[in-house]
Amino acid sequence: MSEIMNTDNKKDKEPVVHTKTIGLRFPFSTSEDDVVQVFKMGYNTAMKSEFLSAFLEDDEDDDSNECVLDYREVIIPARLYRNIRYMDISKMIKLWKGEAAYHGKCQDSYCYEDIARLTQSLLLDRKLSFVSHLEYEYPPNEVIPALLRHEELHRKELEELQREISSLHEQLQPLVNTPPPVHTVPPLVEM
Predict the structure, then answer these.
(1) Residue 187 has what DSSP assignment?
(2) What global pTM score does this model have?
(3) pLDDT for 149
(4) Domains of the chain, CATH where assigned
């Protein structure tokens, strides 16, 4: 379960121009030397993650200016980013926020397979082009076995159909090799 910390800096009865900032923490990938400890983004950007939207939907403003949280921080569960480095998380966040572009597999210092795994674990929207491209290049681990099972099922069905066709062919073979029956027509009798 992720931990959520809420901070609301509003003053009572004072109109406030609202900004909704979401902070994401990845404590097992950040160190005290990292410049960015919390990755911040706008509310709508964060909502591109189905994982985060489950936590954030309750915060949607009903235009009443009551109970609006200006900042919300989410600590991402470690199992969602196990063995993913800080620099790969940072690159994924930049792609997510639109601050960087994905140009396909390239020879740089990022591990795009890990970035793909992180986008999949956070359930990022496939409408984001980098997500769909990464998912194509690095399919989710659950999808590959499902595709293999599906392929195996179709292979077995095809083999069964081939056996059935062979059996029918064997049954028809004697009929094909026998001469057709001869029908004799009696001669016409004249009257």
Answers:
(1) P
(2) 0.63
(3) 65
(4) 3-141 (3.30.710)
